[in-house]
Amino acid sequence: MPSSKRHRVSEDDPLTLAIAPPPTESPAEREERLAAEQEAKRVSDAIDDELNKQRISEKKGPKAIKILLLGKSTTLKNFQLMNSPKAFRSERASWRAVIQLNVVQSIHAILDLMSKAHSSAHPSTSLTNLTNLPNPPLKEYPPLNPEHLKLKMRLAPLLQVEVALIKKLLPNGHAQLSKLANPAQSLPIQQEISVNSSAGWKNTFSRLMGRNSCDSADLIDWSDPDDPGVVLNACAEDMKRLWTDPIIRKLMDIEKMRPEEMAGFFLDALDRVTSPRYVPTDDDVLRARLKTLGVSEHRFTMKTGSMGSPMSHDWRVFDVGGQRSLRAAWVPYFDDMNAIIFLAPISCFDQVLQEDPSVNRLADSFLLWKAIVSNPLLKKTELILFLNKCDILRAKLASGIRLADYIVSYGSRPNDFESANLKKKFAGLLKEHSPERLYYFHLTSVTDTKSTTYILENVQDVLVRDNLRRSALVT
C-alpha cells in the first residue's frame, strides 16, 4: 500500500483522531499530558501485576468453588449472613426501605381486590374506570360496607409512599413507574417491581441517605419528615384492621390470594415493622422480597475446618433470575460449576406462573429439574435440591386443599404431607435422565431459618471437600 494511502487511512481513523494531541498544544500542556499518560500507564501496570499475582495464587491453591443458585435469593442472603455478617448487617437500612415497600404492596394488592369486588357489585360506578380494572368477573363477592370504603380511603396515602419508595429503587426512571404516574391508576394485583441485579440499589439508598456508618441505625435520618416510616406508623392501626377483617379475608379466599405464603410478607408483624424507629432484624432481611433481573456474581471467603486448623476458601455464587424468560441467561454459567443449588417451592402446587398463567408452578419446577439433570454440561456438577416451604405445604393439605386437583398424576393417594412425598417425583426424574448420579436433598421451611443455616453449613463442607478432591489436595 502506498504511504500516502496509509497516511490517509490513519487520518480518517476515529481512534487516532480521538487520542491525538490538540494541534494548538503548548509545551507546558504537552508536558502535563505526557505526565498524565505515564501515571495512567503506571496504574494500569499495577493492576495487571495484581491480576497476575491473583492468577498465580489461584493456581497454587484450590480453585474457587463455583455455585449456580437457581431459585430463591434467601439462600444467597443466608450465605452472606454466615460468611460476611458485618457487611450483611450494615445493609439493614437499605432493606428497611424494601420491607416498607413489601408492606405497602401487600396492602395495595388488598385495596385492588376491594376495588374489584366493589366494581363487581356496582358496575355503573366510576370506580371501574378509576382503577382501570377488567370487566367484572363472574364471582360472588361478599358486599363491602361503608366502613370498608372509609378504611380504603384512609389507607390511600400508602400508594404515594409506594411511588416514593419505587423512585428510590429506580432513581433514573423506569417503565414500571409509568403505571404509577397517574395517582388514579393502580398496579394490577400482585405485580412486582423488579430491579436489575447490576443496578446497585443498596448503594443508591446509601447515597440518598448521605451517610457512611457501620451501624445501620446511624444510616437512618429519624428526623426526616419524608421518611416513609412516618406514614406507615400513622396507618398501622388501619392496616391491621384491614388484614384481620373477616369480609376482606373471605374476599382473599375467593381470589386464592395468600400473601402469607410469599416472601416479603410482614402483615403479621405490623406493630414492629411500622414502629417509629424500626430497624430490620436478620430474619426480616431474609424474609424481604425484591425481585432482581439478570445474573449477579457474589464472592465470599469462607472458613471451614476445626477451630485449631481452619481453612479459607474462595466461593463464587452466581444468582440468576428464576423466571422462564430469563432461563437462557443460565447457560453460560453451566460450564465449570462445582454445584447447582436448586430451590423448588413445593407449596405452590395450586398456583400458576405470573408470566404464563397456563403453567402450574410446581409442574414448571419438575420441567426445570428435568432439563438440568439431563443437561450433558452438568454431568460432573454436584446437585443440591432444596424442597422449600414444607411448612406451608403441610398447612395447605391439612386445610383441605387437594393436591390431586392441581397435579393430575397424583391420583387418589391420601391428601397429606407424608403421602405427597414430592421428593420421590424429583428423584424419579433424576433416575430416568441421569441414572448413575447422586444428589443431596433437603427439606426446608419458610419459618425455620436456623435449620436452613445448619443445612447450608453442611453443604459448604461437602462442596469444600469435593473441591479439594478435584484439586488433588485430599483423597
Can you give a write-up of this model?
- The chain is an alpha/beta fold and 475 residues long.
- Helix content is 48%, strand content 10%.
- The strands form two sheets. It has a six-stranded mixed sheet with strand order 4-5-1-6-7-8, with helices on both faces. It has a two-stranded parallel ribbon with strand order 2-3.
- A hairpin with a 6-residue loop joins β4 (296-304) and β5.
- The protein is globular.
What's the short version?
Mg(2+) binds at residue 292. With 475 residues, the chain is α/β, with parallel strands linked by helices. It has helices at residues 3-12, 14-19, 27-60, 74-83, 85-90, 92-121, 127-131, 146-154, 157-169, 201-209, 228-234, 236-244, 246-254, 270-273, 282-287, 361-373, 390-398, 417-420, 422-433, 449-470, and strands spanning 65-70, 194-196, 291-293, 296-304, 311-320, 339-345, 382-388, 440-443.
Number of distinct beta strands: 8
Which structural class best describes the helix and strand composition?
A: alpha/beta
Please compute the radius of gyration using only Cα atoms.
Answer: 27 Å
How large is the count of helical segments?
20
Largest sheet: 6 strands, mixed
- Share of helix, binned: 40-55%
Strand percentage lies at 5-15%
| Low-pLDDT ranges | 1-10, 126-131, 181-190, 207-213
